Every structure is written in structure tokens, then in C-alpha cells.
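Subject: for your reference before the review

Hello V.,

The reviewers asked for a structural picture of the protein, and I figured it would be easier to keep everything in one thread rather than splitting it across files. Below is the amino acid sequence we used in the manuscript, unchanged from the supplementary table.
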Amino acid sequence: MKIAIIRRKFTPFGGAENFILRMSSGMAALGIKFSIISEAWKENTKNITFLKATSHGLSRYIRLLSFTHSVKKIISTHNFDLVQSHERLLGVDIYRLGDGVHAAWIDRVKKISPWYKKLWLNIDPYHQKIIRTEKEMSQDKNLFYVANSELVKNEIHNYYKVPKSRV
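And here is what came back from the structure prediction:
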């Protein structure tokens, strides 16, 4: 079996990263081939094949599009049995909602922001792309979610009508 996990960047103190490192050892013992798709990952990680996804561009919006394109290209050239993502991407099997629902976060920020920031949040292409991707992901009946809290579980249901059976 071949499993891929997508995590944009490695952070040594990150919970998701430590989970991935622990999980890879157990999977290797079961004979499961384990790949990480990332822009940057810890060097010489035992039991993990690192597949570098690139991103470039002057704005975070362009870098997001570039990263997404790079990941899709990697996935299409490998024959993974399961793809789990810690990033908002279409075409994955499992999405871990570690950062929560972006649309809900935007709504919380708007409540405490001055009018000009509210306006920017409504038109910023980066935030709009993330919200569109979340919505498109919610319509994929084959996608399952892992929520890290009841709050996040309720948000994905309330914002996008994702059945609780998929979370």
C-alpha cells in the first residue's frame, strides 16, 4: 500500500508534523510505503519518501496556486492508494481540519475589524480562493474529514453542510 500525506512546510514543533513522524514508523513496520509531499521537510527522515512540491511567486495567492499545481502534478505521477492532506486541496481522500474552517475564521476576524479590513477580506484573492476550495471540497462525496475539535466539526457542517458522517 502507498500512502501520501501533504503538509506544506515542516515545523519542528508542529503537532501534525510530530504525528506524521510517529505514524511513519508504525506504517513502515506494516510494510506500507509512506510519502510526504511538502515544500520543505525534515532532512533524512527515516521511513518517509520526501516528494518536493514547489511554489513560487511574489504574492501568497500566486504561491498558493503554484503549490496546488505542483502537488496535483506529483499525485498524478504516483499511484497512491490513499492521499491525506493537511492543506486545502481538491482530489484528496482525507483532509485534516487542523487550521479549522477558513470561512469561519474570516467571519470571526470581520467581527472585530475596521470597515477597510472587512472590505479587504471580502476581495482578497488569497482568502477567496481558500473559501472556494473549502466549498468545492465539501461537495466531494468521497472526501472524509478529520476534525481536531467539536467546534471545527460543527463549523464544517454549519458552513458547508458536510454530513457529520463524513467528519
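For the response letter, the relevant points are probably these. The CA atoms of residues 17 and 82 lie 18 Å apart. The first strand starts at residue 2 and ends at 6.

Happy to draft the paragraph if you're swamped.

O.
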